[in-house]
Write a structure and sequence with these properties.
Number of domains: 3
Number of helices: 18
CATH superfamily of the largest domain: Phosphoenolpyruvate-binding domains
Distance between the termini: 51 Å
CATH architecture of the largest domain: Alpha-Beta Barrel
Strand content: 15-25%
CATH class of the largest domain: Alpha Beta
CATH topology of the largest domain: TIM Barrel
Largest sheet: 8 strands, parallel, barrel
Structural class: alpha/beta
Radius of gyration: 28 Å
Amino acid sequence: MDLRHNGSAIEDSAALAERQSGSVASELEALFRDVMALRTHVLRDASKLLAGFGPGEHQPEIINLAHYISLRRHDIRSLQRRLMCHGLSSMGRLESRVMPTFDAVLAALSAMTGQAQDASFETDADFFSGQDHLDRVTAELFGPKPVNRRSRIMVTLPSEAAEDSRLLRRLVRKGMNVARINCAHDNPFVWRKMAEQVSAAARKENKDVRILMDIAGPKIRIESVFSVKKVPKLVPGDRFRLVLSSKLGAHPEIMVSASVSLPQMVERLTVGDRVLYDDSKLEGAVKSVSNGEAIVEVNRSKAGGAKIKPNKGINLPDTSLGISPLTNKDKGDLKTVVALADMIGYSFVSGPDDIDLLEDTLQAMKLSDKPLGIVAKIERPEAVENLPALIARASVRRPLAIMIARGDLASEIGFERLAEMQEEILWICEAASTPVIWATQVLESLVKFGSPSRGDMTDAAMAARAECVMLNKGPAVDEAVELLDRLAMRMEGHMTKKTPTLRALRSW
């Protein structure tokens, strides 16, 4: 054996190890500086956001929300990769704990480089305080956590629920936690009967079931339809008229005319504005507006065409309607709603001022003392844009939840953007410790036709990340409740909010 050669190899190996060690140390020091610099930027920018939310002392959850928004204005993907290489948090799951996560990473980097760095939290409870607050608000709004799952199940009640006590007992027995009464339909007498049936079923099943009542808001719907012959199915290239009710009647060239529930919208339309009908089953563009009528040309429709029918909704994503989210009907309904409900569903909210409008209305009607929750329904692009400020304004007054009203929202922002936007809303709300309701067409094929589609099942599995999942009314809604109960239980073993939880796998 050549000892001289062997000794040289050992020296080369030691030198290489020293160089590598020095390289790693340099990278760790650079990482510490970069993370600290990012933290400084986040704190600085967050203070400006908080000032925009209004004067006064902000709740810790709103401060965390400002930190989160400030962080998400930076692209940190390369920094995340560098952190992961050293076994450190990539900061990809910090929605409810922005500064604690920063400080945990900095404390780890400090230990690895021989520096001293204190964390901003002392215990696990401090680190997860945002999540704990979210759990408390969720329980306050939607009732205690079910034994087998974290998310709650909400069901929109059909009109027959006012008389059918067996339906309510089945729904409660199978897992319904919240009953939703839609005040766009029926009347106060029917709503009161529904609420009585819910309370009776909950008592008999020994369950805590909450009631959400949605005030209707200025929903634009088709009111009446006129056609010389049987109403045809409209396809691309066809035209129809939107008119004031006084203009409803025959037209020499256009077969279908329809009046709308909000007549002033016809006069606010301009040429080129998009008109979406019945959750985008038909989309058209305004070709002309004059004398209380708008001519709309169909650009896209569902396969085989779409009929214009009364009571179907219309969305106008390009049109500024300038209308209040509280209609005279809503104000008349509020007295009944406050007496019966645990939560008010607030439709067509656009920003913080709309929260003030509801609170001022309740106070003027001497209805503000009852500890009601507010569910702000996110249906318009303005509501998405103003969501952080809306949450900051509303959450200081009452327990607040956000409903992702995916039907109207998809029509307003486009189906292509919906999947991305519902994720962003989940993140923003988690950062603010605000519960989310995942709504519209969950398990729709099962609810309506008795058999779920593959897409239904995947959507429902993803919905389990929300604090509450809403099912629409339909013949098989009780079966859907039962399935969703089991599905949410299984999915909770894999994921809580955005964070994967690695329960043992049994498939392999």
